[in-house]
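Quick one: structure for this chain?
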Amino acid sequence: MISKKYAQPLFMIVMSLGMSIIMSGVVTAVNTGLNNGFSDRWFHSFLFAFPIALITAFTLAPIMRPLVNKIASKE
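Got it. Here's what it folds into:
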């Protein structure tokens, strides 16, 4: 089992992975269709999208967390 202190970075990695899988698949399907070669095009898009999503998550999290804490109710 992974230590609790790594929960937040692990969450960002898993969330970036899931979102980049879904978003790259949807955008690839919308732009090129679900015809022959879709899986190759999707995989190429995913390989490009995942590092960007991961870097974005780690970059924006420290900025967004205080903003969300200000907006969110203290109930």
